[in-house]
Design a protein that fits this description.
With about 300 residues, the chain is mainly alpha-helical. It has eleven helices and six strands. β1 and β2 (about 250) form a beta hairpin.
């Protein structure tokens, strides 16, 4: 056996893979396999199989320790003083029932045997309860108090899973406010008078659940589809508040709508007004654009025509 083959065998037995051995000696994996096979070594004699075998041995040791621990717990449950007392009482009752003559105390013997059987069942049930209580895993409950330092609390400080979830919801809510409402989250909360919390329902921000945001998002969706742009939430809110037709319960007043003053100009706080629905219909209705200003149409893929 040459020195190179011996070194390769040592590396393989120490747990190195054939590909790594080939990189160290400038050979391919197939050539390394041939050299090791010439020495009578297979994949079970070294390489990654050593790590797998070590993990299997560790799992077997843990399983054996667990079995021993469970057996000790079961024996401890059977050695409980109350269980022993019930079992001894049941044995005495059985012995006493067999000593009495059956003809003279038939009912008494039957009651004693039944009582002994019940005590035996109670003792077994007690031992099973003690064993189950000893082997039950403690349930990890999320502490809902921010920065909790309670003794034994598994979720403390910045590693609290609940705090991480709230931080993720807060980040999503900030991105949604910047993208959809066009204003910072704090300003949106002040305008909608909402608490500083992401909300109780999963996936739904608290600010987005408010009536002003729902009404604004509905109008913004239609306006962006028709015109490509719309007012920011701040301007939309100011226009409705100055009109006096905004209700805190139902949102924008019934019978009123927001349209442009001049349809040739883009949306803006100075180019928006609140008018009755009748005036809107006279101005063109439908898409809120006077018919004189409609210069063409665009067709979506589904065949729906949009006036521009």
């Amino acid at each position: 056996m040459d020195v190179r083959a011996e070194k390769m065998a040592q590396m393989f037995k120490s747990g190195a893979a054939m590909a790594r051995i080939g990189e160290a000696f400038g050979l391919t994996r197939s050539r390394v396999q041939q050299i090791l096979a010439a020495q009578g070594l297979t994949r079970r004699d070294g390489g990654p199989m050593l790590a797998h075998a070590e993990k299997a041995r560790q799992r077997a040791e843990k399983a054996a320790l667990k079995v021993e621990h469970l057996a000790a717990l079961r024996e401890a449950a059977l050695d409980d003083p109350l269980v022993k007392q019930w079992r001894d009482h049941a044995a005495k009752l059985r012995e006493w029932a067999t000593l009495l003559p059956l003809e003279s105390a038939r009912d008494l013997c039957a009651k004693a045997a039944l009582r002994a059987e019940r005590l035996e069942h109670r003792a077994v049930r007690r031992a099973e309860e003690l064993y189950a209580k000893a082997t039950r895993r403690p349930k990890a409950r999320a502490c809902r108090l921010q920065g909790c330092r309670r003794q034994g609390c598994r979720l403390q400080g910045p590693e609290d899973a609940l705090l991480k979830k709230r931080a993720q919801q807060e980040a999503k809510l900030r991105a949604w406010s910047e993208q959809v409402l066009g204003i910072p989250l704090e300003e949106a909360r002040d305008l909608c008078q909402m608490p500083d919390s992401p909300g109780t329902r999963r996936g739904r921000p608290s600010v987005g659940d408010s009536i002003p945001c729902k009404k604004y998002v509905a109008g913004r969706t239609q306006a962006v589809m028709k015109y490509g742009a719309y007012l920011s939430f701040r301007d939309w809110w100011r226009v409705w508040q100055e009109s006096g037709h905004f209700s805190a319960v139902t949102g924008p007043g019934a019978g009123w709508c927001l349209i442009k003053k001049d349809y040739a100009l883009p949306w803006g706080a100075d180019n928006a007004q609140i008018v009755p629905h009748g005036a809107w219909s006279k101005a063109g209705g439908g898409f809120g654009v006077p018919r004189a200003m409609r210069v063409g149409t665009s067709v979506r893929r589904d065949g729906y025509r949009l006036h521009q």
